[in-house]
Amino acid sequence: MHKKPEAGPEGKLIERFVFAVEHMNRLMFTGRISALKRLDLNAHQINTLFLLDYFGPLKMSAIAGELGTSIAHTTIIVKNLVQKEYVKRNSNPNDRRVVICELTDRGRKATEVFLSHARKRAARVVEKWDMVSLESVVKSLELLWKTEDEVLKSEHPNTL
Predict the structure, then answer these.
(1) Is-contact 160 55, C-beta < 8 A?
(2) How far apart are alpha carbons 72 and 113 in whole angstroms?
(3) Which of 52, 70, 81, 123 could crosslink 86 through cysteines, CB 3.0-4.6 Å?
(4) Domain ranges (residues) in the chain
(5) For the structural domain made of 8-155, what CATH number should be given?
(6) Segment 131-146, tens digit of pLDDT
(7) DSSP structure class, residue 84
């Protein structure tokens, strides 16, 4: 499906889905400002770390494109992450003008620390469910994850 239905049962169901995803995102990341402060990161920097964690090493232009920022702004973000030892920059042996960024071990650990809060909240939620409910939600979320991966791969075939 390429276009969101304007009305009708399918449109209302899609609206409920989008609202549920937005609510889940808020639920999982509420209170994350303190974690960012402890890691000495801002939102742009943690988003950059998540990109590199998910996609692996990326060119500066790919990071800028994913974040929706300019290369100049992305360069500042990456420079700060390099200074904090979360990211390392490498040059492409075939074209030294191309900068490739990748997570350091410290950067990987920072993404794990940031996500640990969401994991703890998720674990508290599932304690309230019976096995049937848990299995239903897990299957639905796995379908969401698989479909999102397919969408990302089709939108960014050279990135992955």
Answers:
(1) yes
(2) 28
(3) 81
(4) 8-155
(5) 1.10.10.10
(6) 999 999 999 999 998 9
(7) T
Q: What is the pLDDT of residues 83-136, one digit of tens each?
A: 999 999 998 788 888 889 999 999 999 999 888 887 888 888 899 999 999 999
State the DSSP string of 30-70. Answer: TTTHHHHHHHT--HHHHHHHHHHHHH-SEEHHHHHHHHT--
Rounded distance between C-alpha atoms, residue 54 and residue 50, angstroms: 6
Both tokens assigned to 40 = 């000495």
One-character DSSP codes across 94-156 = TEEEEEEEEE-HHHHHHHHHHHHHHHHHHHHHHTTS-HHHHHHHHHHHHHHHHHHHHHHHHH-
Q: Do residues 102 and 55 touch, judged by C-beta distance below 8 A?
A: no
